[in-house]
Every structure is written in structure tokens, then in C-alpha cells.
From TrEMBL:
Species in which this protein is naturally found: Empedobacter tilapiae
Gene3D superfamilies, sorted: NAD(P)-binding Rossmann-like Domain
InterPro entries given in the database record: D-isomer_2_OHA_DH_cat_dom, D-isomer_DH_CS, D-isomer_DH_CS1, D-isomer_DH_NAD-bd, D-LDH-like, NAD(P)-bd_dom_sf
Family: Belongs to the D-isomer specific 2-hydroxyacid dehydrogenase family.
Domain (D-isomer specific 2-hydroxyacid dehydrogenase NAD-binding) ranges: 110-297
PANTHER family: 2-HYDROXYACID DEHYDROGENASE HOMOLOG 1-RELATED
Domain D-isomer specific 2-hydroxyacid dehydrogenase catalytic as annotated: residue spans: 3-328
Superkingdom: Bacteria
UniProt-recorded name of the protein: 2-hydroxyacid dehydrogenase
Keywords (A to Z) from UniProt: NAD, Oxidoreductase
GO molecular function terms noted in the UniProt entry: D-lactate dehydrogenase (NAD+) activity; NAD binding
């Protein structure tokens, strides 16, 4: 069995080759993303392994099917970048890694929040310049603040556990409220109420056609002045242009994003010698109260071990038995 990896980085090779000692598949790693320009390179691979910014649309799927590919394995949780209908039509199984160390993402969410509320990113640079003044570094306590969690699945839940340790009040919105969380004092509210009542809003739901741009000028207008918004979920949940306007007029007090709606042109690449053409990201990075990380919330040793383990097991099970628990159903 041959597997072609797209958007692969040295760390993907390290973790997947280690895991492959249990399987003995032939792994081919391509740095480029999967797209019509590369599918011709596929010879007799039966599986492709892709990541968050590989656009696996109908055109790509049709070519993959012609090449004999039977499995699209996402080495991530989200699957908004794959045309599942087309995959079904062409008889290709799509699997993902629904759960891998939700704590990795939850802990990064708290890291972003703590960076913003205590301005450690500014303090780090300042002290290195021998500037030991505190002016401009005034923070705020998390203790007794209200955090609104949108999406209380695995990551949302892990983040709630952490935030509770800081003495925060938790309110939440989810299409399917979690009884265990309710028993433990989490109050579910309507989305509008969450926007109105939260000091801090953290997004942990998947991106779907229904919630695209859920953070926009109308919903931001409902929020408290100086609200903090953290997005470690998917970039398309926030209308970036409208968020920038709300940062300019101080409505948004702090913004932390690990994901960005146009991230596929930027993230996971070293562009330090390039001229960035994306004016929105440049404007975002110019704000002192905005923190951008490049989709690194998942990036821990533990998470990468689990991702490679689950992905390889799923591919193997689909090959042997035709399916696996991690197959994405329509
Ligand atoms: P999950 O499936 O366990 O939980 C998602 C929750 O969101 C579910 O409870 C679901 O009912 C809820 N939900 C679905 N649609 C909703 C909506 N419109 N409004 C409110 N809630 C809604 O998923 P998870 O493992 O907790 O992951 C959450 C998201 O985090 C993923 O979809 C992915 O986009 C993102 N993620 C980001 C990174 C990263 O590195 N930044 C890594 C992994 C996952």
C-alpha cells in the first residue's frame, strides 16, 4: 500500500515514519498542497493523506478516483475542506482524526488568552531591550470573568476545565448541550445572550455553512465594549474585515487567532523574505492587542503521536475491513 502525503513538513515525516514501523506501507511525502497541479504525480497510491489547508474539491476528487485512490485520510479533526458528496459519489472513503489531545488546543487557547490579558508578548520584547518600565502593560484578572464558550465538544470541554481553575464563570452555546457540563455548573444560553454577557468569547465549534462569519459587525455590536475574542477553531468563523473595524474603534479589546480565513496562503510557510500581499493579516498584526499564531494549537508531541497513530490505523482498517470508526459520514 502506497500513501501520498500532501502539505507535509519535516515533523510529519518524523512522526508518520516512526508509526509506519507497525505497518510497513510505502510513504511518499510531498511538500506541496494537494490540488489539480499535483494529482498527476500520483501513480499507484491508494491513499492520500491531507491537512487543514488542502482543498479537496470535486475536481481533485474526480482525478484521485481516476488514479485509483480509495482513501482520503485527513490528519486533522476538521473536514470542511473536503467535498464529502463528491467523495461518496466516487467511492472514496474519507477518514479524519476526530480526537487527538483536545488538551493541546485547549491549553494553547489559554496561552493566547494569558498572553493578551497580561501582555507577556510585549513584556518579553521590552525586557530584552532593557526597558523595565510597566507603563502600557496593565492587564486584567481572569478571576470571576465570564467566558462564553461556543461549542462544548472535546476541546471546548477541556478549555472549560482549565478556565474553571482560574475561577471564571462559564456560559456556553452548543447545538447539543452536554448534560455532564450542566451538572457541573455550566449554564447554556442562546448565542445572542452569550455574545451580550461574555467578557471573553472562545470559539470551539466546527466551521459549517450555517455558522460562517458568526462573528460579524452585527454580532460584535451585541458584545461588551472591550470584549476579548479567541479563535482556535476555524478562520471562517470570523469576518476578519469587520473584526478589524471593531478593533479600530475599540469595540474589540483583544483578539487572539490561531486560525485565519485566508491562512492557506500564509500558514505553515516561512515567508520572512517575501512581500506579503494579504493586507488584512498585515493590518491585524499591526495591532498591539492582537495575537496571531499560525495554526499551532494542535502542535504538541502528544498530539502528533496520536495523529499519526490514529491516521495509520484508520487507513489500515479501511484497507482491511472497508471501514473504520473514524470514517466521516455524510
Ligand atoms: P467536537 O466535534 O468534539 O466538538 C464540536 C462541538 O461544536 C460539538 O459539541 C458540536 O455540537 C458543536 N457545534 C457544531 N456546530 C455548532 C454551531 N453552529 N454552534 C455551536 N456549536 C456547534 O470537536 P473538537 O475536537 O472540540 O474541535 C472543535 C474545532 O476545533 C474543530 O472543528 C476544528 O475546527 C478546531 N480545531 C482546531 C485546531 C487547531 O490546531 N487550531 C486543532 C483541532 C481542532
Amino acid at each position: 500500500m502506497k500513501i501520498a502525503f500532501f502539505s507535509s513538513k519535516p515533523y510529519d515525516k518524523t512522526f508518520f515514519e516512526a508509526e509506519n514501523k507497525n505497518y510497513g506501507f510505502e510513504l511518499n511525502f510531498y511538500e506541496t498542497h494537494l490540488g489539480p497541479h499535483i494529482v498527476n504525480a500520483i501513480e499507484d497510491e491508494q491513499a492520500v493523506c491531507v491537512f487543514v489547508n488542502d482543498k479537496v474539491n470535486r475536481q481533485v476528487i474526480e482525478i484521485l478516483a481516476k488514479k485509483g485512490v480509495k482513501i482520503i485520510a485527513l490528519r486533522c479533526a476538521g473536514f470542511n475542506n473536503v467535498d464529502l458528496e463528491a467523495a461518496k459519489e466516487f467511492g472514496i472513503k474519507v477518514c479524519r482524526v476526530p480526537a487527538y489531545s483536545p488538551e493541546a488546543v485547549a491549553e494553547h487557547t489559554m496561552a493566547m488568552l494569558l498572553t493578551l490579558n497580561r501582555k507577556t508578548h510585549k513584556a518579553y520584547n521590552r525586557v530584552r531591550e532593557q526597558n523595565f518600565a510597566l507603563n502600557g502593560l496593565l492587564g486584567f484578572n481572569l478571576f470571576q470573568k465570564t467566558i462564553g464558550i461556543v461549542g462544548t465538544g472535546k476541546i471546548g470541554k477541556a478549555f472549560i476545565n482549565i478556565a474553571k481553575g482560574f475561577g471564571c464563570k462559564i456560559i456556553a452555546y452548543d447545538l447539543y448541550p452536554d448534560q455532564e457540563l450542566m451538572n457541573n455548573g455550566v449554564e447554556y444560553v442562546e448565542l445572542d445572550k452569550l455574545f451580550k454577557s461574555s467578557d471573553i468569547i472562545s470559539l470551539h465549534c466546527p466551521l459549517t455553512p450555517e455558522n460562517h462569519y458568526m462573528i460579524n459587525q452585527e454580532t460584535i455590536a451585541m458584545m461588551k465594549d472591550g470584549v476579548t475574542i479567541i479563535n482556535t477553531s476555524r478562520g471562517g468563523l470570523i469576518n476578519t474585515h469587520e473584526a478589524i473595524e471593531s478593533l479600530k474603534n475599540h469595540k474589540i479589546g483583544y483578539l487572539g487567532i490561531d486560525v485565519y480565513e485566508q491562512e492557506e496562503k500564509l500558514f505553515f510557510k516561512d515567508l520572512s523574505a517575501e512581500i506579503i500581499q494579504d493586507d488584512m493579516i498585515q493590518r491585524l498584526m499591526s495591532f498591539p492587542n492582537v495575537l496571531v499564531t499560525a495554526h499551532q494549537a494542535f502542535f504538541t508531541q502528544e498530539a502528533l503521536e496520536q495523529i499519526s497513530e490514529i491516521t495509520m490505523r484508520s487507513i489500515s482498517e479501511i484497507k482491511e475491513k472497508g471501514s473504520t470508526d473514524e470514517v466521516v459520514m455524510l
